[in-house]
Design brief:
The complex is a heterodimer of chains A (257) and B (387). Chain A is of the alpha/beta class. Chain A has helices at 44-51, 74-81, 99-110, 116-129, 146-157, 176-192, 204-210, 227-230, 236-243, 245-256, and strands at 4-15, 18-29, 33-38, 59-64, 67-68, 84-87, 164-168, 196-200, 213-218, 221-226. Chain A has a domain at 93-161. Helices cover 40% and strands 25% of the residues of chain A. In chain A, the strands form 2 sheets. In chain A, strands 6-7-8-3-9-10 form a 6-stranded mixed beta sheet. Chain A has a 4-stranded antiparallel beta sheet with strand order 2-1-4-5, with helices on one face. In chain A, α3 packs across α4 (116-129) and α4 (116-129) crosses α5 (146-157). Chain B is elongated. In chain B, α7 (182-204) packs antiparallel against α8 (212-251) and α10 crosses α13. Chain B has helices at 25-33, 55-70, 83-102, 111-117, 126-158, 167-177, 182-204, 212-251, 254-260, 265-303, 308-318, 323-328, 330-348, 353-385; strands at 3-7, 11-16, 18-20, 42-46, 50-53, 74-78. Chain B has 2 domains: 3-116, Transcription Regulator spoIIAA; 144-385, no CATH class. Chain B is built from 14 helices and 6 strands. Chain B has 387 residues and is α/β, with parallel strands linked by helices. Chain B starts with a strand and ends with a helix. In chain B, β1 and β2 form a beta hairpin. The chains are: A alpha/beta (257), B alpha/beta (387). Chains A and B meet through α3 and α4 of A and α1, α2, α3 and α4 of B.
């Protein structure tokens, strides 16, 4: 049996009278790249925030490696948070810290016994691993290009070697070549480090290149299937998404290959 | 246990077990550090029983291997070395090789040395420091003058077209900086005049001249304290708000968006704030003056037994026709200084939120400094004019 790294059951999120999620289920299995897709305003970010423990849902359970984070608080929740890495859409690097310090921050928080020297080397290891030049370590986020910010954010997410990685629109704002490079990097790391990746994305290229399975948020619930099968799902929004003009070319490529 | 150590004929054999993950660093770090390698010529490492090995674990293992090799031991793996170790090795080796090639005679450099050799901040010698500061100061000054010029040009240029002065925006700023500041300004004015009256009463009582407390409070509040305290409060309240508002708009690229739409950010953001504050600060000063006089009256009545009608007639004797205006005329000047310090620093924000905090602080400190400096200049001017 494949053990679900992340399991969401019956998630309900409401803001006043506005229903965002109503009984949403989601399963993410070990070692897969799971794409979350949905139209604007369908609650992809709300889902991510719930799963990260940044906001409490009205109902439902969210299990990360077996721990129900909706029931946890304090030190227990903190311990679960050390097990996953996140990159935010705009990078969310701490602007007052250099890239090196950004990567070291989770280590300082969780691994007090790590010597300063070890911390420097481990942080440099992560910075090199995501393909940043050594000079970038001393730079501040304001001095980096968009692509470098995404890579630095990835390095910070990997600081504690999590098995579970959340990426919020990792390729948005990148040119197609940089986006493809980022996808390749992500796939490479995913294979090498045996990561489970949950990715919110709008980028069809990215979905076809990287995702094993895709969850589409429609009607406040999630339709999950493998990439090959989800494109034939009868839901009109899913049809429009994967068979619209912008997707047509890619489908041909994906099926032809 | 994460590590089992056995002694063999040639040396030692290590058997790694359990989870070698970042969050368990303490356990395997201390276990590896405790391994006694002295005299071991051969070290065999078995990783088959490892439940998990992440990059942090692999890095620590590699450190151990390098250390063992440096001490002359031969390190082998039972079976193939773990993939993670290879990944760490592949990432780190090119850097170390390049570093070693660049400095051949020296021992193999590690990442740590590379890190330290990156260009960082160098410490300035005293002369360099003074020079740097002078240039910065000069640039700051010319930037401030350029800013003043641009605000004046934009403001005056907008005069023939009153609509482009943005009356709605000005009204909002008069409300934000003026109306909402009334309670705190009134409270401070009241307390300060009570304190002044109380302190002077104690001294003047020695000479039996308590009645002059009224003169002191009246002239002190109307000429100096009313306008000065109001300006300092407003500098703290609104000077910082201006810098922070405009600064976060800069960070958010809202200022760029304005500019791209063809709207001059000076016309839309800076001038309305300056005009708004120039309107509201004199009005606040009038309130501060009034409340200050009331405060003096309250203290005189309660402590010195000077009845209200005597207080009022004494006040009208004490003030000359210019006393009130000498105070109030300074208010618009102070207002312009505060507003420009705030908006100028706000427009200078770029890059990071740290910059926003720094420049907001600078805005407030400079606004208060400029207000006090201008007050001193006014004092000299009024002395020369004989008012």
């Amino acid at each position: 049996m494949i053990y679900p790294v992340l399991e969401v059951r019956g998630l309900v999120n409401r803001f006043g009278s506005q229903v965002v999620h109503d009984g949403l289920d989601m399963d993410v299995r070990e070692d897969e790249v799971f794409g979350i897709v949905g139209g604007s305003g369908t609650g992809k970010s709300v889902l991510l925030r719930s799963v990260l423990g940044l906001q409490r849902p009205q109902a439902g359970t969210i299990r990360i490696e077996g721990h129900d984070i909706t029931q946890l608080s304090g030190a227990a929740l903190r311990a679960v948070k050390a097990r996953y890495g996140v990159t935010f859409q705009q990078g969310a690097l701490y602007s007052a810290l250099t890239v090196l310090q950004n990567v070291q921050l989770p280590m300082v928080e969780y691994l007090e016994e790590l010597s300063e020297c070890a911390r420097d080397e481990l942080a440099m290891l992560k910075i090199r691993l995501v393909g940043l030049p050594a000079e970038a370590a001393r730079k501040y986020p304001a001095e980096l290009s968009g692509g470098m910010i995404k890579r630095a954010a990835l390095a910070r997410a990997l600081a504690l070697d999590p098995r579970l990685l959340f990426l919020d629109e990792p390729t948005s704002g990148l040119d197609p070549i940089s986006a493809a490079e980022f996808d390749e990097l992500m796939l490479y790391l995913q294979k090498q480090l045996r990561l489970t990746v949950v990715m919110i994305t709008h980028d069809l290229d990215s979905i076809f290149r990287t995702c094993n399975r895709v969850g589409v948020i429609v009607d406040h619930k999630m339709e999950t299937d493998t990439l090959e099968r989800i494109v034939d799902h009868p839901n009109p929004w899913i049809q429009a998404y994967f068979h619209g003009e912008r997707a047509g070319i890619r489908l041909k490529v994906a099926h032809g290959a | 246990m994460v590590l089992e150590v056995r002694t063999t004929e040639q040396g030692i054999a290590l058997d790694l077990t359990g989870e070698w993950r970042a969050l368990a660093y303490r356990q395997f770090d201390s276990a590896l550090a405790a391994v006694d390698m002295a005299g071991a010529r051969h070290i065999e490492i078995a990783t088959a029983r490892l439940a998990a090995l992440d990059l942090t674990g692999a890095w620590r293992l590699r450190e151990f291997v390098l250390q063992a090799q440096k001490m002359g031991a031969q390190v082998t793996f039972a079976g193939t070395p773990p993939d993670q170790l290879r990944l760490v090795d592949e990432t780190l080796r090119p850097i170390e090789a390049a570093a070693a090639a660049a400095a051949a005679p020296r021992p193999v450099k590690d990442l740590r040395t590379e890190l330290e050799e990156l260009p960082g901040e160098t410490e300035d010698a005293t002369l360099t420091f003074i020079g740097r500061r002078t240039v910065t100061l000069w640039r700051d000054l010319s930037a401030a003058l350029a800013f003043l010029g641009r605000v004046s040009a934009t403001g005056l240029g907008a005069l023939p077209r009153p609509r482009s002065l943005r009356p709605t925006s000005i009204t909002r700023h008069v409300y934000d900086t003026g109306i909402t500041a009334i309670p705190i300004v009134a409270l401070i004015a009241f307390l300060i005049s009570v304190i002044v009256a109380y302190m002077s009463a104690q001294q003047l009582r020695n000479y039996g001249a308590e009645i002059f407390v009224v003169d002191l409070v009246t002239i002190g509040v109307l000429r100096e304290l009313g306008v000065l305290l109001t300006s300092i409060i407003v500098a703290g309240r609104s000077g910082s708000a201006f810098a922070a508002e405009i600064g976060s708009m800069k960070l958010n690229e809202e200022v760029d968006a304005l500019q791209a739409t063809g709207v001059d950010p000076f016309e839309a953001l800076v001038v309305p704030r300056v005009i708004g504050l120039v309107i509201s600060l004199p009005l606040l000063t009038v309130i501060a003056d009034l409340v200050g006089l009331v405060g003096g009256a309250v203290l005189c009545a309660s402590l010195l037994h000077i009845p209200l009608d005597e207080y009022v007639s004494r006040v009208s004797q004490a003030i000359s026709p210019t006393t009130f205006w000498v105070g109030i005329v300074k208010a618009p000047v102070f207002a312009a200084l505060i507003a420009m310090a705030g908006t100028h620093r706000g427009m200078q924000v770029s890059g990071s939120s740290r910059e926003l905090g720094r420049l907001t602080t600078v805005a407030v400190v400079q606004a208060i400094f400029l207000v006090i400096l201008a007050d001193a200049l006014f004092a000299v001017l009024f002395l020369e004019m004989g008012v």
